């Protein structure tokens, strides 16, 4: 336990300015996504762009590729969430996944996990290909669903956060592992908030 605490404190002291900025803007992004606020996207672009560099530098190649995907999807999601119909109402509403949605997202997740694992195991020197691929595949799925305002995006983010906490810790990015602890708490809160919003809007329809 003392060794773990020692590594934690050493990791915090070794936190670089880019990592600090990435963590703080990342937390801000998830905080705004919890309330379905459009500011989730500009903060998300800043954080994920920095993490492209951090992930590749730390040998987390699937996470690095994931953050490239994040940057692109943040820009796409920003556009999607801004769309309004002829009455001025936002086109996208918070909804829950039906059976077909679940089938599609599970197929997408499984396919991404297998693909990323094969790439990491065959073509990189990754020491954690299973875990790296798992965290990234869940995050790919979560981002896709968040852009569509599906409540279940929070489930996939929770999986990503649970796997990423030890993943980044063992790579020496302790401040980032703390970020994922905060993310996990926000993801649980986000699930509750989005579900209540969907239920309220459904009852009012």
TrEMBL record:
InterPro entries recorded: NMN_transpt_PnuC
Major subcellular location class: membrane
GO CC annotations on file: plasma membrane
Subcellular location: Cell membrane
Membrane topology: Multi-pass membrane protein
Keyword tags: Cell membrane, Membrane, Transmembrane, Transmembrane helix, Transport
A single MF term (Gene Ontology): nicotinamide riboside transmembrane transporter activity
Transmembrane intervals: 12-32, 38-54, 66-82, 154-170, 176-195
Job description of the protein: Required for nicotinamide riboside transport across the inner membrane.
NCBIfam families according to UniProt: NMN_trans_PnuC (TIGR01528)
Family: Belongs to the nicotinamide ribonucleoside (NR) uptake permease (TC 4.B.1) family.
Name of the protein: Nicotinamide riboside transporter PnuC
The organism of origin for this protein: Filimonas zeae
Gene responsible for this protein: pnuC
């Amino acid at each position: 336990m003392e060794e773990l605490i020692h590594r934690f404190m050493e990791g915090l002291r070794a936190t670089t300015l880019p990592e600090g900025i990435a963590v703080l803007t990342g937390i801000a992004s998830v905080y705004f996504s919890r309330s379905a606020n459009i500011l989730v996207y500009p903060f998300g672009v800043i954080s994920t762009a920095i993490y492209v560099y951090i992930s590749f530098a730390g040998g987390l190649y699937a996470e690095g590729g994931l953050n490239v995907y994040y940057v692109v999807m943040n820009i796409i999601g920003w556009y999607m969430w801004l769309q309004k119909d002829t009455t001025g109402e936002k086109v996208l509403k918070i909804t829950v996944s039906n059976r077909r949605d679940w089938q599609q997202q599970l197929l997408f997740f499984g396919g991404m996990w297998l693909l990323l694992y094969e790439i990491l195991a065959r073509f990189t020197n990754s020491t954690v290909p299973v875990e790296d691929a798992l965290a990234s595949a869940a995050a790919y799925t979560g981002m896709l669903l968040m852009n569509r305002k599906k409540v279940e995006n929070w489930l996939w983010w929770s999986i990503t956060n649970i796997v990423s906490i030890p993943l980044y810790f063992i790579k020496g990015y302790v401040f980032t592992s703390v970020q994922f602890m905060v993310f996990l708490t926000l993801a649980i809160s986000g699930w509750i908030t989005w579900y209540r919003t969907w239920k309220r809007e459904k009852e009012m329809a």
